[in-house]
Amino acid sequence: MSGPFAQFHEPNVEEFFNDPILTVACVLLIVVSLGWILVSRLVARNMRRARLRRLDPPKAGEYQPARDVWAEPPPG
After folding, report:
1. pLDDT tens across 12-50, in order?
2. What are the extents of the domains in the chain?
3. Contact 26, 13 (CB under 8 A)
């Protein structure tokens, strides 16, 4: 191979195992990518559930509105 790109070559799998920095970088990239996918799916799932909760009316006996303390006279 000659020319300006002669110094660059395709890396072998053995090179990744022999160089600990490349191995750590690849493992870290895989872990961060999987974490990103997991967190984004959890966020999307929570957003979808919140939207469905807003659209569905509460079932009988399941939801009790907050008590209005100003509507009742003070005790005593």
Report:
1. 777 767 888 888 888 999 999 999 999 999 999 998 888
2. 19-52
3. no
pTM score? 0.49
CA quadruple 38, 39, 41, 42: dihedral sign: positive
* CA dist., res. 15 & res. 47, Å (int): 43
22 and 15 Cβ atoms separated by less than 8 Å = yes
**Cβ–Cβ under 8 Å, residues 50 and 56:** no
Distance CA 13, CA 35 (A): 25
Amino acid at 23: T
